[in-house]
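Team,

Forwarding the record for the chain on the shared tracking sheet. I've put the sequence and predicted structure together so nobody has to dig through attachments.
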Amino acid sequence: MAANNAMTGLPKFLGCEVTELGPGTLKAVLPVRKELLTPIGNMHGGVLAGYMDHILGVVLYPLMAPGQWAATTEFKLNYLAPVKTGTLDGSAEVIAMTKTTAVVRGEVSNEGRLVCAAQGTLLIRDPKKK
């Protein structure tokens, strides 16, 4: 999938993989690895936040014009259960979108159990003029 080929930085380090991407919807997976766990064996909350931030942004790309990009301005994340093993299954959907902003919602499950939920606002930017 093209979304995975373009991945760099934190999403690449985390091991995010977009499995479905359509107009306003996204599904992604992230394998739980030892490097992503705290000393007590739970996934670090920052990993879940980074994963969620990534999927909340990527879900917008099929709806934006070529060259546009999205930046998170805020999101609220609810941690619901700890993660120790397995795979994170993430999903995101666009709730509302204008020319310059979007409200998006996401959920992450682990082994069939909801572990976090989020909603955020993203700024939609046009490409820089040369």
